[in-house]
User: What shape does this take?
Amino acid sequence: MEIRSLTRTEAERRGALLKVERYDVDIDLTGLADGPEVRCVSTVAFSCREPGAETFVDCAAEVRSATLNGRPVTPTGDGRIALPALAGHNVLRVESVQADTTTGQGVHRAIDPADGEVYVWMSFEPDEGRFVWACFDQPDLKAPHAFTVTAPPAWTVTSNSGDPRVEELESARRWAFPDTPPLSTYNTVVNAGPFHEIRREADGHDLGIYARRSLAPILDRDADELFTLTRQGLAFFGEVFAMPFPQRKYDQVFVPEFGGAMENYGCVTWSDAFLRRATPTPAESELLAKVLLHEMAHMWFGNIVTMRWWDDLWLNEAFAEFACHWAAERATRYTDAWASHLAGGKLKAYLSDQGPVSHPIHQPIHDVAQAASIFDNITYPKGASVLQQLMTYVGEERFRAGMTAYFARHAWGSATLQDLIDALSKASGRDLDTWRTAWLATAGTDRFSLERDGDTVTLVAADTPRPQVLAVGAYSRNNDTNGRNNDANGEVLERRALVRVEVTQTRTPVTGLPTGADLEVLLINDEDLTFATTRPDPATRDAFFRSAAQLPTAISRGVATATVWDMLTTGEATATEAGRCITAVLTAETSDAVIEPCLTLAANIAELWAPEGERAGLTAAVAEACLRLAADPGRRQVALRGLARTATKPDDLAWLREQAGDDVDLLWRTLVREAELGGDVSSESALLLERDPDPDAWVRALTVRAALPDPAAKAEVWQKLAVDRAVPVNSVGQVAAAFWRPDQDALLTPYTRHYLDSIPHLHRGGMIPAMVFAGQLFPPRAIDPTYIEEAQKASDEAAPVVRNTLLERSDTVKRMLHSRGTPTDRVSGGPGDGVSEWVSRA
Assistant: This one.
């Protein structure tokens, strides 16, 4: 029988009926040293407000025995155990075994290929705790958890609460952890293995970081940065929320074969892919900082105060995403964090919000399976941008005061969106009900343009806009370049005015802007204060594209880039126009936080959006920009990586090899490019694999094979990637990108059919693998619009997380296919005019 997903109605009934007093969970990991089994005994004490009523407990593991108040109870076969005739106070005891620890949910056993050591991690969001032990797996039934873990004697065990009591047994060790505070089941964790551990004291906290032993040198290299960021983040959030983190111990555990990072209270679990094998680039270092701060923000927003039901999942994740950028800019060295947000996640959000899976930020969630499908670009980057707008709308000091009151009132309980809105309304003195309805209950993106009539400037919304505050910047030319390398004339633009406007209607006068013949650009949403797309007026469209690179700040250039990108995705700009504009921005960019995402965007346009006849020219332009950037020592690493993706000239490839020297990472990237272009690199790849100290270097060798225009290599890679799922989830995108290369359509066509055949099974392994495989394996090549319709139809019966991921990715590929069409197939025009029928229908 299929495992049932908890519905909202069921959760509300169970939440009204029960109060969970505590969990005592005894976990035996000794069977994982050389086998697959985790054995658990879950003892749950809970009270019932209606004695005699019945309910159920969640347990999708194999149940060996179960008793309620000493009487046997029986699993129903759908991941639940019925609990009849409840007493006022109850004790449930369930013995369970989970043997699917390779591809199953909730718990994972990974083997380090470097030394054969075994590592175990658990991750329970949204409702995967039930796959390991019996629990009431819904967010509002919070309770203290006491974990006792028996593990092999050489292993270290980590969990939410610090300072376990460790008992030596005959052939094992038992770790007894103190009670946690009241936590939702999805916020708990146990990790184990022969970890390399580093600890530091900071501001009264005991900080720990862990990784597998084969990555000890990398963890040692990054330790100072990790501890510094952790100290800075704990201090910032403790101050702005007027609530210091209440536990002394704060651990972060980097594990293999994990996707992303998870905010378990006091013990964050990370993919150890964040421990970069090569020296991190500035953008990679900033990403590490933002993820660290994102998970830390969840300690308050998610763990200490938890959403009552998954309809507020957006708030949980959007708040953490907003807070990580806020903290990065205010408390760390990553002062361009919002600029990189605009250059990366926000561009994805603009595209998603205009596609087939756009949805209101806050929406009814029927069951947990639906909740798993909205860990998406609307929930994360759009949600973060909307909260940034909310802080702008009410003012930062009032925003902080509202958050302080919210945490003080709801600590260790659960809350709803209305609770937060009420706290912010009271603190700000503004009625936020209209704001809430417009921003959170309505899907889609506002679009603004400007009308000029003499000295009068009017901000015009394409439709009824949401209430918001945004800024318009006025720029004119300044011949003082201050050493910047801009256009051929060495000209840059200087901001002469910045005017904030509160929007309440379709047409809003903008007063205070300068006039004059030298006024070059009026930039809507300057400073990136809101979530809205913009358009230059038709008369200045071409000048806008030419001037984007000459704007003076990373944010202003980013806002212009966002406009150009949005015009490309809606068919109002060609790939050549957008590619050349963004490549020029790349050449002029001065912010380390933005150069790498800008380079990725320019290369993506050349590779994925350009018509076949224009792809080579755009790719060459990006390669030339990389060669120029490589002359700057501070940009060299990023530039050489970009060149390894875009080089086509034999001289450039040979120069890359010279520059690489002993840089193993750059050599792998160069081999991938040479393989794609038909070079015989097999023996060189084998030699590099032997000398690469990375325990996961075999994935780099597989990536080289994926790029080869060779049928045997494609078959081997597809088997390992899509069928066997042997590639770690965090590396699937890297291998898939090398697999789906340009000019290989004849080789790739069979695999487009294989993807369709795999759709019913893509949900296997839980939410993160489902999202990764559904999105990253979707073919961007060797297909046509008919194929996309077929894929979308095939997704109708798939799990919600697969269906939404596939629909979103297929919409993006539709737009790519339209952009790749012949010039007579593409059109230019105003908003909404430039998308072909088969794109706009989505």
